[in-house]
Amino acid sequence: MGMPSVGVFAVVRNQADEVLCVKLNYGSGNWTLPGGHLDEKESPVEGVQREIFEETGYKAKVVNFVGVYSAPEKDDIVLLFRAEILQEGKFLPNKEIVQIGFFPVDSLPKAMHPWNRERIKDAFTHMESSLRVFERAGNG
User: Fold this and answer.
1) Is 36 exposed, middle or buried (0-12, 13-18, 19+ CB in 10 A)?
2) Which one, of 67, 74, 1, 79, lies nearest residue 37 by Cα?
3) Which three-class secondary structure string do you get for 19-47?
4) Residues 122, 67 contacting (CB under 8 angstroms)
5) Which of 23, 29, 56, 118 could form a disulfide with 99 if both were Cys (CB 3.0 to 4.6 A apart)?
6) What is the dihedral angle through the alpha carbons of 43, 56, 95, 7, rounded to the nearest 10 degrees?
7) Is the separation of the CB atoms in 28 and 98 below 8 Å?
8) Do 12 and 85 meet the contact criterion of CB atoms below 8 Å apart?
């Protein structure tokens, strides 16, 4: 068994408290949260901000941490963050994401995995958690 892979995802909310979701262009074709796997030597915060930008065109900043998720049948863990929009983007459909949209938490798209509904609910209900980012030692 190698190391479990780490997935990083974010609940990004707009002024109307709607959640930014992305529709996959492969597999299930479901709606999900922006995110993906970390690159080598990338921190979870850097990684999720990069994924949000790559998938949606939106620049966002992580504001805090929601929780850690794992499923016994999958060799991975998921870190879920809360992020806010710094700059609206221009979305272009691509091989990964066919569409993006903002949805109120009580009317999320039907084509969404139950796990993602739960994660979104967590981001709206469990407000307190700690996120500590240690700066790299030295100057680079």
Assistant:
1) middle
2) 79
3) EEEEEECCCCCCEECCEEECCCCCCHHHH
4) yes
5) 23
6) 30
7) no
8) yes
Question: What residues pair up with 70 in beta bridges, in sequence order?
Answer: 77
> How many separate helices (H) and strands (E) can be counted in the chain?
2, 7
Structure tokens that stand for 27 in this block: 């597999």
Residue type, 24: L
Q: Report whether 80 contacts 64 (CB < 8 A).
A: no
Which domains are assigned to the chain?
5-125 (3.90.79.10)
Nearest 5°: the CA angle 83, 54, 119 is 40
Helix (H) or strand (E) holding 6: strand 5-13
For the entire predicted model, the pTM comes to: 0.87
DSSP state of 102: E
